[in-house]
Design goal:
globular
């Protein structure tokens, strides 16, 4: 199961950055069989996101694990830029949270 916090944070960032029409919020995905990622989520918090690679005008449906799977490869660059932005945003937020606030000595609250 996806982490609700990480899923919401990712969806909010991507909706804000790319526009709300670019993000589909789904409670479950199809097909939800054959995904090994669930095994990783048993070990660590995470969120699985899908990149839309369909292009109906070109006859590309983009459904993962389907026998006629095909992807509009132009989507890959968009996905890489979106994920790079999301990870940079997330790492910056974590870095800020880890910085000592004014008046607090670094490490003062750590053993």
């Amino acid at each position: 199961m996806n982490s609700p916090e990480l899923s919401t944070a990712a969806g909010t960032y991507l909706s804000t950055t790319l526009g709300p029409e670019s993000v589909l919020w789904a409670r479950a995905s199809w097909p939800y069989n054959c995904e090994d990622f669930a095994l990783f989520l048993n070990e660590a918090r995470g969120a699985q996101l899908y990149l839309g690679v369909a292009n109906t005008d070109a006859g590309i449906d983009g459904a993962p694990h389907s026998p006629d799977f095909a992807a509009d490869e132009r989507a890959i660059g968009h996905g890489v830029r979106a994920m790079t932005g999301l990870l940079t945003h997330r790492l910056t937020a974590l870095e800020r949270a880890d910085r000592p606030s004014p008046g607090r000595r670094e490490g003062a609250d750590r053993p």
